[in-house]
Amino acid sequence: MENEERRDFRQMKREQHRRFRRMRHHTNDKTGGIVLIIIGVLFLLNRIPQTAVLFPTWFFTWPVLLIGIALITAIKSRFRNPGWVIMGAVGLYFLLEENDLIGLNLKPFIIPVGLILLGIFITIKRNRQCNNQKFKGRFKPWQHEDIKKALEETTDSSEDILNVSSIFGSIERNVFSKDFKGGTISSVFGGAQINFTQADFEGTAIIDVSVIFGGVDIIIPSNWNLKNEMSVVFGGIEDRRAVTNNISESGKTLILKGDIVFGGIEIKSY
């Protein structure tokens, strides 16, 4: 009887977690769609002579487009992925340079200062992740061991939730979790290879992927069903897996959500 109660409790927590993630992704997609509508309206107004005079000449240039893509990426990721900062900074720099708003005395310092700020940003993010792991599980509102175990399996198990961030570097990660719950992959001016051949899960798992001027290789078992819901801008995603007939039998669906900007994702299987 106790085993059934624990199983029902874990199932309830999993369903709550999945509903929350579906609601969050629906909100992000809706926000991105609204932003695209606004951009389209602005371009339309710029084509009409009566309203074109309302916009400055620099407004419809590629640096502004880069800044706009950075803002969309930031909103959809809830400002968690650092890629939008780099993209926005690059767009802002070229926007200021094209309009002669950067003095000659400041240009030699732009790149060093940018690298310093990026290093500080990465360090702060890494320390925050380490602190979260250090204090994870110390303060629980419940003391019953069964409930604590159930909560850890559904929300607090670090090995079951993927968190990969590759910035100006390369990362290889092998996932061995048998109760994989999804996670995030960020690749900014870098590369990442994630191997799921030893992983397993039930039902559906969602991975948020952000690729900006980088590449990600995802290796999954051939019998997993893959659902691509990525937004791609000047990039691509390619599924190189061999065609197999036992995909529907596994009942496992891996959903990829997120953004690709000047980058690519390659799906493989062994």
UniProtKB/TrEMBL annotation:
Give residue ranges for domain LiaF transmembrane.
32-129
The transmembrane residues are 31-48, 54-72, 79-96, 102-124
**Signal sequence range:** none
Q: Which UniProt keywords apply?
A: Membrane, Transmembrane, Transmembrane helix
InterPro entries this protein is in?
LiaF_TM
Short name of one Pfam family for this protein?
LiaF-TM
- Per its record, how is this protein called by name? LiaF transmembrane domain-containing protein
Native source species: Taibaiella lutea
